[in-house]
Amino acid sequence: xxxxxxxxxxxxxxxxxxxxxxxxxxxxxxxxxxxxxxxxxxxxxxxxxxxxxxxxxxxxxxxxxxxxxxxxxxxxxxxxxxxxxxxxxxxxxxxxxxxxxxxxxxxxxxxxxxxxxxxxxxxxxxxxxxxxxxxxxxxxxxxxxxxxxxxxxxxxxxxxxxxxxxxxxxxxxxxxxxxxxxxxxxxxxxx
Length: 191
Prior knowledge:
Layout: H1 3-34, E1 43-45, E2 51-53, H2 55-58, E3 72-76, E4 79-81, E5 84-91, E6 95-101, E7 108-110, H3 112-117, E8 124-128, E9 136-148, E10 151-160, E11 167-169, H4 171-174, E12 177-181, E13 185-190
Parallel strand pairs: 6-11, 7-10
Antiparallel strand pairs: 1-2, 3-13, 4-5, 5-6, 5-9, 8-9, 9-10, 12-13
């Protein structure tokens, strides 16, 4: 290897260390000085004030990888329940639950256990038509943040289903995305 190549590799390695240090500093310090307390997670702000998800650096499983196409997010399917994909969904930046991606559900539905852990306060009641019953009352409340991969929704109205064994992620969360369900991943494409 020539001195020039070695010198170039040395500069590249030095630049990588600098970039890594900047990213770590951004992850550690930006949320403390630039964001409100309800904004949690592993991210930094770009020059326009837009959040850049750095969850893949912090070990967050459903964060988009750096080679993702802008406006496109992929989420790994963990398994299927009755053919419906189950993925991990993070609430309020700290609680992750398995949920079914239900393209036929108009809203996001939590189990009573999920609602208790998230301390959801009941705001009202909606009447729901389920596959097995019509006119079923479901309590409603709000969660501060719902995140899947690079997709984040804030101040989300949720229903609480007394008999569901697993939550449902509905159209209110991903309605602004084209959703492609593949064998092992779900792709969200901004419209």
